[in-house]
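step 4 of 6: structure.
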Amino acid sequence: MKAPKLFFYILLAGASLSFLYPFYWMLLATLTPEAQIGALGFLPAGLTMDNYQLLADKIPIGRALLNSFIVAALSTTGVLVFGAMTGYVLAKMRFAGRNLLFFIIIFTMSMPFQLTLIPNYILMVELRWTDTLAALVIPALNSAFAILLFRQAFQSIPDDLIHAARVDGCSELRIIFQILLPNVIPAVITAGIITFMNSWNDVLWPLIVIRNEQLMTMPQLVALFAVGGRSEAQLGVKLAAAVLLALPIIVAYAVFQRHFIQSMASSGLKG
Amino acid sequence: MASIRFEQVSKRYGKVTAVAQADFEVKDKEFMVLVGPSGCGKSTLLRMIAGLEDISEGGLFIGGERVNDLPPKDRDIAIVFQNYALYPHMTVYDNLAFGLKIRGLKKEAIREKVLEAARILEIEALLDRKPKAMSGGQLQRVAIGRAIVRSPKVFLFDEPLSNLDAKLRGQMRLEIARLHKKLQTTVVYVTHDQVEAMTLGDRIAVMQQGIIQQIDTPQNLYRRPANRFVAGFIGSPPMNFIPGAINQSSQGFVFEDDSLTYAFPLPASAAWEPHTGRRVEMGLRPEHFSARPPQDGLPYASFEVEVQHIERLGHESFAFAQWGKYALAARLSADEDLEPPCRITLWASLDKMHFFDLESGRAVG
């Protein structure tokens, strides 16, 4: 191996270590008795599951995990179904105002979420959806980003494929879900991953509309727990909560690694 | 099996008229070819039969039933697209079976029909493959298979051979003709290729700018083009046109070219009378020239030309020559050993000449 290349690899290894070490340390700390965490280095110092046990005793972490899964799964399904339908209409159907509609949808992407926070909250109150999972799921059932992604993907599919399906007897819904979606799998995965991650990591909106601890999502519960004083300044328990919060995304990343990278690259957005 | 009848059918996109008052019938079991240059409205006409384009005006009847408002799936038609339009994520078997599945056929019945279609088109070995693993010719066979598997009343072909290379195109042309004979189904076939049109069609509709110029058998289109456009469109290289006028002289009617250098006597006929003094174009096909005087005793004309270029095709040659101020193309026997530039005399029977009114383009005489 040539010297410059070796140097390059050492540099890369150093950079990776600097990223990975905090994760490693966090994981190790959750498995270490509280008293030893302060002096923790590279090597484990006494293994214990006490931090996780304590966490489970203090907050309904299992319930929060389930809530997060329900909300993220339903939102993602909704975004894929309705995003694809809206994208199809904008890509392949001709009607007056189509482009205007598309530009309005794009415009909403440029508005910060905080801007619509209050009106959305008022709407939830009016609909009596506060303190229900409906407040987390229903507003997240479609997204401008997914619409844009599907519209672009469907535009690249020749019209004749749709015509052939129509002659074969397909309804519009069947065209979308049986003919088009299987041919834009990268877009489906991109929209799916990004929506799931956004929903999983969202803290602000759940904090606004959910008060009932039994209905809280993981990040919300963990955030309240970590900064709200209930962790009693115990670092090990806080970190255990953080590990449980990050774990599903890390597992998902391990499974969909290739698609993750592809989706980040193709969307030009960070989740 | 069914006939297709157009009654004053028009298609407009805003202010643009894509098809204007099409009024004709495709008979049961007939092979009708719609031919014309790009943008002439032939594909729009085809897509109106399929139900993929709305009809702005007029009535469309398939098998006697008005289908203007019938969705594509209820018209009992099948269409083969230029880019095949096979479902990329399905195997060939599933591509063929898809339409039947949607129509609720039993698995066994579907299997039987798919295998039968695959046998007819000799694509049995491809049934497990996906479209991306196949060549253009194979894709086209599968696309045709998807059309025949449903045994529809009408087959529609939208430039199906345009994406194939010349050799494969010739081969598939033969197969489509063979298939039509075997299946005895009404076919409407769109192409811009006049060879496909001439070889496949029982009748051909020549279109230009949304208007059907002439509908006739291939032979009649070639022999008796209704107007200058049809005359120029059918034939390769295209017909030669010489502008001039029909005049009356002491010997009868003559055609005189614009430069008044050449004059050809016209056959005695009262048909010239209304066109006397009017500007016309004389049309003569390249294949009606000969480098030797005709021996059949019919009156002929001679053309002193300067050959500037020659294309040798082996079995024949095309000479591109200058006759006065006019450029002429002539098909000559391969035996003519010409080394351009050179001067030769070309001959053509007077009865092969066509005349078209310069203003309206209509055939006269």
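step 5 of 6: annotate
 - The mean pLDDT of chain B is 91.
 - Chain B has two domains: 4-233, 240-364.
step 6 of 6: archive
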